Amino acid sequence: MGFLRNWRRKRVLTSARIDAALWARAASKLSFLRGLSDEETARLKQLVVLFLAEKEMHGARGLQLTDEARVSIAAQACLPILNLGLDIYNGWVGIVVYPGEFRVRKEETDEHGIVHTFDEELAGEAWPGGPVILSWEDVGLAERGYNVVIHEFAHKIHLDGAGDENFPAAGAGMDAAKWRETLEEAYRRFCTEVDAGLPTSSTRTRPSTRPSSSP
Amino acid sequence: MSEAFFTESAVLARDWPELYGQLSVFYRQDPAGRPSP
To answer: pTM higher than 0.90 for the full model?
Structure first.
Protein backbone atom coordinates (compact mmCIF):
# COMPACT_ATOMS: atom_id res chain seq x y z
CA MET A 1 0.00 0.00 0.00
CA GLY A 2 2.73 2.42 1.00
CA PHE A 3 4.74 1.44 -2.05
CA LEU A 4 1.79 2.02 -4.38
CA ARG A 5 1.03 5.33 -2.78
CA ASN A 6 4.62 6.51 -3.13
CA TRP A 7 4.67 5.44 -6.77
CA ARG A 8 1.44 7.35 -7.45
CA ARG A 9 2.78 10.42 -5.69
CA LYS A 10 5.97 10.38 -7.74
CA ARG A 11 3.89 10.11 -10.88
CA VAL A 12 1.67 13.03 -9.83
CA LEU A 13 4.70 15.19 -9.09
CA THR A 14 6.32 14.50 -12.46
CA SER A 15 3.17 15.50 -14.33
CA ALA A 16 1.61 18.27 -12.23
CA ARG A 17 2.70 21.54 -10.73
CA ILE A 18 0.99 24.68 -9.49
CA ASP A 19 0.71 27.61 -11.83
CA ALA A 20 3.14 30.26 -10.55
CA ALA A 21 0.64 33.12 -10.79
CA LEU A 22 -2.03 31.08 -8.99
CA TRP A 23 0.40 30.25 -6.18
CA ALA A 24 1.48 33.89 -5.94
CA ARG A 25 -2.15 35.04 -5.62
CA ALA A 26 -3.01 32.50 -2.93
CA ALA A 27 0.24 32.96 -0.98
CA SER A 28 0.02 36.78 -1.05
CA LYS A 29 -2.96 36.56 1.32
CA LEU A 30 -1.18 34.20 3.73
CA SER A 31 1.47 36.37 5.38
CA PHE A 32 2.76 33.50 7.53
CA LEU A 33 4.09 31.74 4.40
CA ARG A 34 6.46 34.61 3.63
CA GLY A 35 9.11 33.52 6.12
CA LEU A 36 9.54 30.11 4.50
CA SER A 37 12.83 29.48 2.76
CA ASP A 38 12.85 28.72 -0.98
CA GLU A 39 13.44 25.05 -0.18
CA GLU A 40 10.52 24.96 2.28
CA THR A 41 8.24 26.76 -0.19
CA ALA A 42 9.14 24.26 -2.91
CA ARG A 43 8.32 21.36 -0.58
CA LEU A 44 5.07 23.01 0.51
CA LYS A 45 4.03 23.40 -3.13
CA GLN A 46 4.72 19.70 -3.75
CA LEU A 47 2.59 18.79 -0.74
CA VAL A 48 -0.18 21.05 -2.07
CA VAL A 49 -0.11 19.32 -5.47
CA LEU A 50 -0.36 15.90 -3.80
CA PHE A 51 -2.97 17.07 -1.31
CA LEU A 52 -5.19 18.40 -4.11
CA ALA A 53 -4.69 15.16 -6.07
CA GLU A 54 -5.62 12.94 -3.12
CA LYS A 55 -8.36 14.92 -1.38
CA GLU A 56 -11.77 15.91 -2.67
CA MET A 57 -12.79 19.47 -1.93
CA HIS A 58 -16.42 20.43 -2.43
CA GLY A 59 -18.34 23.66 -2.03
CA ALA A 60 -21.68 23.21 -0.26
CA ARG A 61 -24.91 25.22 -0.58
CA GLY A 62 -23.97 26.42 -4.05
CA LEU A 63 -20.50 27.70 -3.10
CA GLN A 64 -18.20 27.57 -6.14
CA LEU A 65 -14.62 26.97 -5.07
CA THR A 66 -12.09 28.77 -7.25
CA ASP A 67 -8.65 27.30 -7.95
CA GLU A 68 -7.21 29.98 -5.71
CA ALA A 69 -9.52 28.90 -2.87
CA ARG A 70 -8.45 25.28 -3.28
CA VAL A 71 -4.75 26.18 -3.32
CA SER A 72 -5.17 28.47 -0.32
CA ILE A 73 -6.92 25.82 1.78
CA ALA A 74 -4.43 23.15 0.71
CA ALA A 75 -1.43 25.38 1.52
CA GLN A 76 -2.76 26.10 5.01
CA ALA A 77 -3.59 22.44 5.57
CA CYS A 78 -0.11 21.38 4.48
CA LEU A 79 1.92 23.95 6.44
CA PRO A 80 1.62 22.00 9.74
CA ILE A 81 2.76 18.77 8.05
CA LEU A 82 5.63 20.33 6.12
CA ASN A 83 8.13 18.27 8.12
CA LEU A 84 5.80 15.47 9.20
CA GLY A 85 4.70 14.20 5.81
CA LEU A 86 1.39 13.84 3.98
CA ASP A 87 0.76 10.31 5.33
CA ILE A 88 -0.63 11.91 8.51
CA TYR A 89 -3.67 12.82 6.42
CA ASN A 90 -4.20 9.30 5.09
CA GLY A 91 -7.51 7.51 5.67
CA TRP A 92 -10.02 10.19 4.61
CA VAL A 93 -10.59 12.32 1.52
CA GLY A 94 -13.32 14.90 2.00
CA ILE A 95 -13.16 18.63 2.62
CA VAL A 96 -16.53 20.38 2.55
CA VAL A 97 -16.65 24.15 2.39
CA TYR A 98 -19.83 26.05 3.32
CA PRO A 99 -20.28 29.71 2.35
CA GLY A 100 -20.48 30.74 6.02
CA GLU A 101 -20.88 29.26 9.48
CA PHE A 102 -22.88 26.06 9.43
CA ARG A 103 -25.32 24.63 11.91
CA VAL A 104 -24.80 21.17 13.34
CA ARG A 105 -26.93 19.19 15.72
CA LYS A 106 -24.98 17.94 18.73
CA GLU A 107 -25.83 15.52 21.47
CA GLU A 108 -24.39 15.60 24.92
CA THR A 109 -25.03 13.21 27.77
CA ASP A 110 -25.16 14.81 31.21
CA GLU A 111 -24.09 13.25 34.50
CA HIS A 112 -27.58 11.73 34.96
CA GLY A 113 -27.38 9.93 31.64
CA ILE A 114 -29.87 12.30 30.00
CA VAL A 115 -29.05 13.06 26.36
CA HIS A 116 -29.43 16.73 25.41
CA THR A 117 -29.76 17.75 21.78
CA PHE A 118 -28.83 21.25 20.65
CA ASP A 119 -27.83 23.15 17.52
CA GLU A 120 -24.48 24.84 17.19
CA GLU A 121 -23.08 27.30 14.62
CA LEU A 122 -19.55 26.31 13.65
CA ALA A 123 -16.75 27.89 11.62
CA GLY A 124 -15.07 24.54 11.18
CA GLU A 125 -15.28 20.94 12.22
CA ALA A 126 -13.00 17.91 11.87
CA TRP A 127 -14.28 14.36 12.05
CA PRO A 128 -12.00 11.56 13.27
CA GLY A 129 -11.29 9.41 10.21
CA GLY A 130 -13.72 11.58 8.23
CA PRO A 131 -14.04 14.92 6.51
CA VAL A 132 -12.99 18.42 7.45
CA ILE A 133 -15.76 21.02 7.19
CA LEU A 134 -14.96 24.70 6.83
CA SER A 135 -16.81 28.00 6.59
CA TRP A 136 -15.43 29.94 3.62
CA GLU A 137 -16.29 33.23 5.30
CA ASP A 138 -14.03 32.21 8.19
CA VAL A 139 -11.28 30.92 5.90
CA GLY A 140 -11.29 34.44 4.44
CA LEU A 141 -10.66 35.88 7.90
CA ALA A 142 -7.27 34.12 8.02
CA GLU A 143 -5.12 36.45 10.01
CA ARG A 144 -2.70 36.36 12.89
CA GLY A 145 -4.08 34.20 15.67
CA TYR A 146 -7.31 33.22 13.91
CA ASN A 147 -6.99 30.60 11.25
CA VAL A 148 -9.78 28.08 10.92
CA VAL A 149 -7.96 25.91 8.35
CA ILE A 150 -4.84 25.35 10.47
CA HIS A 151 -7.08 24.94 13.53
CA GLU A 152 -9.18 22.18 11.97
CA PHE A 153 -6.24 20.37 10.40
CA ALA A 154 -4.47 20.42 13.76
CA HIS A 155 -7.61 18.64 15.02
CA LYS A 156 -7.15 16.08 12.25
CA ILE A 157 -3.53 15.45 13.25
CA HIS A 158 -4.74 15.05 16.84
CA LEU A 159 -7.85 12.94 16.19
CA ASP A 160 -6.34 10.59 13.64
CA GLY A 161 -3.09 10.10 15.55
CA ALA A 162 -2.55 8.02 18.63
CA GLY A 163 -3.34 9.83 21.87
CA ASP A 164 -6.68 10.27 23.56
CA GLU A 165 -9.63 12.57 23.01
CA ASN A 166 -8.11 15.46 24.92
CA PHE A 167 -4.46 15.18 24.10
CA PRO A 168 -2.65 14.48 20.87
CA ALA A 169 0.07 11.89 21.17
CA ALA A 170 3.59 13.22 21.44
CA GLY A 171 5.62 12.90 18.26
CA ALA A 172 8.48 10.46 17.76
CA GLY A 173 11.40 11.24 20.03
CA MET A 174 9.38 13.62 22.20
CA ASP A 175 9.20 13.54 25.98
CA ALA A 176 5.54 12.49 26.28
CA ALA A 177 5.19 13.56 29.91
CA LYS A 178 6.61 17.01 29.24
CA TRP A 179 4.44 17.42 26.15
CA ARG A 180 1.26 16.62 28.07
CA GLU A 181 2.27 18.69 31.08
CA THR A 182 3.02 21.72 28.88
CA LEU A 183 -0.30 21.45 27.03
CA GLU A 184 -2.22 21.04 30.28
CA GLU A 185 -0.45 23.99 31.87
CA ALA A 186 -1.04 26.17 28.79
CA TYR A 187 -4.70 25.19 28.72
CA ARG A 188 -5.10 26.01 32.44
CA ARG A 189 -3.41 29.38 31.98
CA PHE A 190 -5.50 30.11 28.90
CA CYS A 191 -8.74 29.34 30.79
CA THR A 192 -7.64 31.50 33.72
CA GLU A 193 -6.90 34.42 31.41
CA VAL A 194 -10.22 34.02 29.63
CA ASP A 195 -12.10 33.76 32.93
CA ALA A 196 -10.35 36.88 34.19
CA GLY A 197 -11.31 38.72 31.00
CA LEU A 198 -7.67 39.29 30.08
CA PRO A 199 -6.79 39.66 26.43
CA THR A 200 -5.08 36.36 25.76
CA SER A 201 -2.02 37.53 23.93
CA SER A 202 -1.57 34.79 21.44
CA THR A 203 -4.83 32.97 21.17
CA ARG A 204 -7.36 35.50 19.95
CA THR A 205 -10.35 33.88 18.40
CA ARG A 206 -13.16 35.26 16.36
CA PRO A 207 -15.64 37.23 18.47
CA SER A 208 -18.15 34.39 18.24
CA THR A 209 -17.18 31.73 20.73
CA ARG A 210 -16.50 28.26 19.54
CA PRO A 211 -15.05 25.18 21.11
CA SER A 212 -11.32 24.90 20.76
CA SER A 213 -9.39 22.12 22.33
CA SER A 214 -6.77 21.05 19.84
CA PRO A 215 -3.15 22.12 20.29
CA MET B 1 -2.98 26.87 19.83
CA SER B 2 -1.56 25.47 16.60
CA GLU B 3 -2.89 28.35 14.54
CA ALA B 4 -1.10 30.78 16.85
CA PHE B 5 2.08 28.72 16.51
CA PHE B 6 2.04 29.13 12.73
CA THR B 7 0.45 32.55 12.28
CA GLU B 8 1.58 34.45 15.38
CA SER B 9 4.74 32.56 16.20
CA ALA B 10 6.76 35.48 17.58
CA VAL B 11 4.05 36.33 20.14
CA LEU B 12 3.62 32.69 21.16
CA ALA B 13 7.40 32.25 21.51
CA ARG B 14 7.60 35.38 23.66
CA ASP B 15 4.54 34.90 25.89
CA TRP B 16 4.25 31.10 25.98
CA PRO B 17 7.86 29.91 25.53
CA GLU B 18 7.34 26.41 26.97
CA LEU B 19 4.34 25.77 24.76
CA TYR B 20 6.13 27.23 21.75
CA GLY B 21 9.09 24.93 22.42
CA GLN B 22 6.94 21.82 22.63
CA LEU B 23 4.93 22.69 19.52
CA SER B 24 8.20 23.36 17.73
CA VAL B 25 9.38 19.83 18.56
CA PHE B 26 5.97 18.36 17.69
CA TYR B 27 5.75 20.02 14.26
CA ARG B 28 9.54 19.99 13.67
CA GLN B 29 9.37 23.65 12.67
CA ASP B 30 10.59 26.92 14.13
CA PRO B 31 8.31 29.55 12.60
CA ALA B 32 9.46 32.26 15.05
CA GLY B 33 13.01 31.74 13.84
CA ARG B 34 12.05 32.54 10.24
CA PRO B 35 12.65 36.01 8.84
CA SER B 36 9.57 38.07 9.68
CA PRO B 37 7.31 38.93 6.77
So the answer is: no
